[in-house]
Amino acid sequence: MPAIMTDLPLRLGVIGLGAMGAEMLAIAAAHPDVTVVLAADPGGSALERARIAHPDLTVTADPTEVVSHTGIDAVYIAAPPVTHAGYAIAAMKSGKAVFCEKPLAIDLAEGEEMVALADATGLVNALNYTLSDRSAAVEVLRAVRAGEAGDVLGVDIELLFPEWPREFQKDARWVAGREQGGFLREVGSHYVFLTDRVLGPLTPVHTEVSYGEEGESSATGLFSANGIPVRLLGNVAAGPETYSWTLHGSQRSYRITEWGDLSVGDADGWKPVTLSGPRGGEDTRLAEFVGAVRGRPSTLADFAAGLRVQRVIESFHSAE
């Protein structure tokens, strides 16, 4: 997108007011460089919660009003994944920058169309991957590029959920469904993105997935990233909720747990790393998006990165 060179706040529209949408709406409403012009959700209860939390905010049950609104510069999309492509494409066709929750899309053809349109228009486009600016992930990327890991020998991604959907997502029934939900799309995509950023694109070698009554129950995948093996193991089973990403190096290894706790490993064991600066969160990523629309560099994932992740995640489902 040609940078919007102005001191005026970015005029933002919000689509989707569930858990993530409501959180980002609150952050955007408090951001000094953002004016939320309009927020939309087809659900009456979500709209009512937004009205109570933001009594001066204009809301609508029709998300198309956001993408067609002439007084909006950019759109944030937190609606169910099956709607991402339709809203993002309409927004870009009307000249708006787009900040979208992951996954990019469910259908690969739609993801490809989103990337093609973003390239053709030059509009700023970004996906809200947690690990794009999380300080632990930024430090691992720096260390690997500086050669501190030595040769990278492999990456392991381990996910365990005692229940799925997780408690905070239970109102969003699509999260459990095979059509657009599951822990691979909702959680695995963040760690696939990080691996793609550190090692390069992943090529599927073998994937398999099993389903229970509430969507995916287990998933095993082997991938190659420039010849480096990447293994993903995910389960819905008894045990502590686990989020673990481990990069194995010949000199040092790096492990990120709990979405941002970093440890460095060598022959003496794993040692926690204290990181300085902001941890990275929804607030910092929104600020980066605003900066990107203003023409500043950004660490956010673009739609092209999101499409690479989508291809990896959907390889599990195509292997059924």
From TrEMBL:
SUPFAM superfamilies: Glyceraldehyde-3-phosphate dehydrogenase-like, C-terminal domain (SSF55347), NAD(P)-binding Rossmann-fold domains (SSF51735). InterPro entries: Gfo/Idh/MocA-like_OxRdtase_N, Gfo/Idh/MocA_oxidrdct_glycsds, GFO_IDH_MocA-like_dom, NAD(P)-bd_dom_sf. Pfam families: GFO_IDH_MocA, GFO_IDH_MocA_C3. Keywords: Oxidoreductase. Residues 11-125 form the Gfo/Idh/MocA-like oxidoreductase N-terminal domain. Residues 140-254 form the GFO/IDH/MocA-like oxidoreductase domain. This is Gfo/Idh/MocA family oxidoreductase. It comes from Catenulispora subtropica.
